[in-house]
Amino acid sequence: MSNSIFAVELAVRTYPNDPFRRALHELVRSQPSIQTPIQKRQLYYQAAQHINANFASVERGCWDYWPDHQKAIDDFEMWTQGMVTEEGARQAPSYDPPPRYLTFTMAFLLVHGSPTDQAIAQRCNIPEENLWRRDVFGYIVQAVASIDFSHVQSDVVYLIPGDDSYALTPQDLALPKFHYLRPIG
User: Fold this and answer.
1) Domain map of the chain by residue range?
2) In Å, what is the CA distance from 77 to each residue of 81, 112, 157?
3) Per the CB 3.0–4.6 Å rule, which of 20, 85, 133, 153 could disulfide with 109?
């Protein structure tokens, strides 16, 4: 079986006791370890709805779609490692004043050529000069709400931080490890 990858990461302005961060946190933590395709679709539909309702707080982000099998496998592994390493997380709490940021990541290893893969490929066919426009980025993010999980080999979703005091600072986002998160205009 050949694969494609579709991944989205958001850097979102947050604050202590932010209901948006709390909603995403509870949504991710409430999922059973084994899910049906319908449960997966509900998870990502709800995530997309929360993001849409709070899209004004999204300041940076990235998205990827690649129909190349080996790149899909390698990139999916990279996205998955963001969940199990400390790469994106602060090593200690920060009590710097606002603004503060969370990152929310969703990655999907798609069955290449499936109807979902074809729909995502079409949606991601954006002229380069429009890639990071706010309306286009929102259009890409909303694609996750329509994924048919019978066409997904694997997926990963995670939120950093799990605790408000570990929220990222502007100085954190300026580090080279976050260079891929582009300003959304």
Assistant:
1) 3-183
2) 6, 17, 13
3) 153
